[in-house]
Amino acid sequence: MRLGTAVAMLAVLLGGCAGGTVVEYAGLDGGYASDYVQQAAASGRFPTAIAGRPSAGVKADSDREVLAALRLPGHFPPAEFVAVDAATARATRLVLRFDAAFGSRPCEVDAPLAAGRGSTLSVNAALCSGDGALSHARAALPRPGGAGDPLLAAGLNALLRDLLPASIRDVPDGG
User: Fold this and answer.
1) What is the pLDDT of residues 41-63, one digit of tens each?
2) From its phi and psi, is residue 55 left (phi > 0), alpha (psi between -120 and 50) or beta?
């Protein structure tokens, strides 16, 4: 077994298990640099597009609760996550898709599945600029009781730590 594969498996077993969350995949595309994250957050507001919702309820309320729960990893300055229109956003932004297929175009907000199916919530996340993903990741976590569930917040923030590393060297096997 390659050392990089062993490190990746260990990271999933130890680091990606916040409240039952398993980060199943995290990858960086050739253009990722932490500078993109810092530039996007420079105003103190981090643009975020959300597709689907983590639990039943009114989408606008769910989006507000999800945005309030998100935190940039500690190696970045703090920023408030704010909603942007996924269909028209072009600047660097976070894209979260709840219960959506994990596809080859992580920045496109495809039709999400209905909330509330099964006991596991899948979350696809991508740092996007224009049409392209600079990094993307997928996590599985226990379906929350609501968008304000602390376990959902812990799971989403574990996913962000893998999605937004300080450098490409911080990703198991180099991304």
Assistant:
1) 999 999 999 988 888 777 778 89
2) beta
CA distance 38 to 2: 33
Find the length of the chain.
Answer: 175
Taking only the tens place, the pLDDT of each residue in 115-171 is 556 888 999 999 999 888 999 999 999 988 888 899 999 999 999 999 999 986 655
By residue range, what is the domain housing residue 122?
3-174
How many domains is the chain partitioned into structurally? 1
132: which residues sit within 8 A by CB, 6+ positions away?
Answer: 29, 31, 107
Residue (of 161, 123, 140) closest to 37 by Cα position? 161
